[in-house]
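Task card 7
Instruction: Convert sequence to structure tokens.
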Amino acid sequence: MPKTNYLIGKAERLAYRVPAPRRKITKKAIYTWADIQARLSPQIQAVANGQALLDEALCPGDFAVSRVTMHPSYIAKSFYPDRLFRDMQVIAVGSQSTSVCPDRWTRVGPPEVMPAPRYLVAGKRQSITEFADRFASISEASTVGKDLFRIWSFDMACGDEKIRTDPPAFEACYEVGLNLLPNLNSDFIKAAFIAYAQSLGFETREDIAIDADNLWFLPVEGDASQLVRLGEFSFVRVIRPISKMRAISGAQRASNSSALVQLPDAEPFNADVRVGVLDGGLPAIHVASRWVRSVIHSDPDADHATGGANHGLGVSSALLFGSLSPGQLAMQPFAFVDHIRVLDSMSENDDPYDLYRILANIEDVLVSRQYQFLNLSLGPDLPIDDNEIHPWTAVLDSHLSDGETLLTVAVGNNGERDVEMALNRIQVPADSVNALAVGAASHAGEGWARAPYSAVGPGRSPGVTKPDILAFGGSGQQYFHVLDADNLGCSEPVQGTSFAAPVALRSAIGIRAVLGDSVTTIAIKALLIHTSETNEQHKYDVGWGKVPENLSKIIESADGEARIVYQGELTPGKHLRLPVPLPEEGLEGMVEIKATCCFACPLDSTDSSMYTRAGLTIQWLPKKDDKSETFFGQTKFAAEHDLRSDAGKWETVLHAGLRKYGSSLNSPAFTIHCMAREGGAPVSDGAAEQIKYAFVVTVKANKHPNLFTEIMNLYSEILTEIEPQVSIPVRT
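Output:
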């Protein structure tokens, strides 16, 4: 029997740092200084005049917030106008994405609508007035003057601009997001807003408010006719209706039928893997108790929510066994599971503030750092907002930024809602960039498509490709089968992204259970994405594709194939060369190369246009020390807009592939340049923290059936084969 080849590990031992390439940028001036003065002077004067008219109650400590929008030709972090902000005596408190159609730009052809960051800056009103008064005296050659060349506009946000018209779930209940001052005590802003809101008749719930970076999310209740006035408070960023939780009654029976199931008489493959399910609890008696290590109730005094235990058992069943096959022996679980009930009977009272309580329950689990793998099939019934971060997303991303925990999130079952109003887009918190957002495929095996109910992308930038992956979640043509809470020892047919998410996590747990700690959680995420199949469907429907049902397709290298794993940490500001190991004599014929890069990074919830604080540019060099070629859609020195739209410079996942003749490859390599930013500004070398990454490359050369062996023989003292530590199950 021929030997089975697995993953090639320790490829990071081949990596080495290289000097940054020489780069000379010449930015032709778009405007004359007279043009700049003529456009911006009346704008900044209008801001000063408008702020002077504001009531003191709207400007705590005499601070007011204004907006500075960059010209689309100058949106790279190197053009951040820090000298201008210092001269204005303002503090950047956040950013938003906007679109600008300038009258002129640096590119060839007529100007088009382009994305541009809009900075929110807070400063004393007197400082803005003084800046406006001396605006005409600013020198063109000064550092402030150079920054002004890159500014498109100054303005203030009106109260009605801050109001979102999400479908209201609760009458007169709203969430207000306020910008706070970074690195400064902002209690005076909070107190001033509470007093102002109460003066308008709003009831405020500061006891359950959420702090996320320098954002403060405060629930309020009051008259909708007063919302515009509420939005006039200078530090208010967004006002939106409070949404309900998604319905957990998504389990849909094909008929009133149950089928007996046969569960395995075996312990999990690996008892050391720490797995948690965040859901609605479990029935007091169920047949999966052998594999449930513990059941934890966030609120021990509460009862189960209606349908909560059914949903919780279904999700846990999907994680333990995958989709059950009536009359057949179920698959052996990969690990024990802890079930943490975060949704309970306290949610039965139609409480508009339930979202906050449930999020607090989830955060308690994340803070504990007990779990390597978690699943969340719950969330707000709310499509994502391109321009504003939701507290659920902010909290999850913050706690996942160290890359130690892999969290799968169901994208939602709203895929058949109104397309024109974008109500079918992925739901909060599936826009998390550090989590793995999972949609539902209609069928297991071949012939699958996005299940009609499964929410669609795009995600919020960065994180445009969402869902990340699909997994089988059931459909009217092929139902997903889970343990039936009402009929002991039986299964019931269901469908929903609630079940697709734990199925995807089951594959991740399987990798860890079989291969052990030789692959990090970031590498496992990269492997799932790397091996997913697109079925030639649009990425907004399927993301990077459907994860394989068979674990061997993820962790094995087929004949004529080598799957190579690099993992470690990247240092911002440095260039890391990753050589791709190939046989010494080279390759013949057509060669397929596929690569996936994933990393975890800190976030800035106040900067929705620049959410991730780390980014990568990756160059592909088919020949050593030769010119680079496109791989992930990036060109060497492309415009910032091109990098964002085509390659996702600040995306946490990059995935692509190409075909080349083997004769064109000579010591090929990838070079990764890691960058850091904060508030849109560059972070100096050494000041930013390292980030965990994983890079997976598959080389397929049909004319070299022994490719894996040839590589391992040549690099026997450097590379290692990541072999299973336990027997791989026939069915996964």
